[in-house]
């Protein structure tokens, strides 16, 4: 899968989740009541919403990226050719007679 498609598969769902998480969080919590290490956060409401959204987006994107990473097949992880029959393997397959790269 090409790199830009992977990024879209990670960033778009995490964007939607971040929007929903921010809506729920700031429905329950007033930005003026936020504290960091016991001190009130000195941000305007708009700044708190913006920072909150981007933090939710980063965490949701990390979760999506981890899921994407863990869905790789053993052939992708080990760099092995997924074709079991030697006669059907493309030239350059690591499991074939020639050393190289199986794509």
How does this structure look, described?
The chain has about 100 residues and is mainly alpha-helical. The protein folds into two domains: about 5-70, no CATH class; about 75-103, no CATH class. It is about 55% helix and about 5% strand. The chain is built from three helices and two strands, in the order H-E-E-H-H. The longest helix is centred in the N-terminal third of the chain and has 26 residues, at about 5-30. The termini are close together. The relative contact order is 0.11. The model is unreliable at about 95-100 (pLDDT under 50).
Short note summarizing the structure:
The chain is mainly α and 103 residues long. It contains three helices and two strands, in the order αββαα.
Structural class: mainly alpha
Please provide the count of β strands: 2
Largest sheet features: 2 strands, antiparallel
Give the domain tally. 2
Strand arrangement, largest sheet?
A: 1-2
Q: What series of H and E elements makes up the topology? A: HEEHH
N→C terminal distance? 12 Å
Using only C-alpha atoms, the radius of gyration works out to 23 Å
How many helices? The count is 3
Structural key phrases:
single chain, 103 residues, mainly alpha, two-stranded antiparallel ribbon, 3 helices, 2 strands, 55% helix, rod-shaped, disordered C terminus
């Amino acid at each position: 899968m090409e790199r830009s498609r992977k990024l879209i598969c990670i960033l778009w769902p995490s964007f939607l989740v971040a929007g929903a998480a921010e809506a729920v969080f700031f429905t329950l919590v007033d930005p003026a009541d936020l504290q960091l290490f016991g001190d009130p956060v000195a941000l305007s409401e708009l700044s708190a919403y913006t920072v909150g959204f981007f933090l939710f987006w980063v965490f949701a994107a990390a979760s999506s990226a981890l899921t994407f990473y863990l869905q790789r097949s053993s052939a992708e992880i080990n760099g092995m050719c997924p074709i079991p029959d030697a006669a059907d393997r493309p030239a350059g397959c690591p499991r074939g007679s020639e050393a190289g790269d199986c794509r």
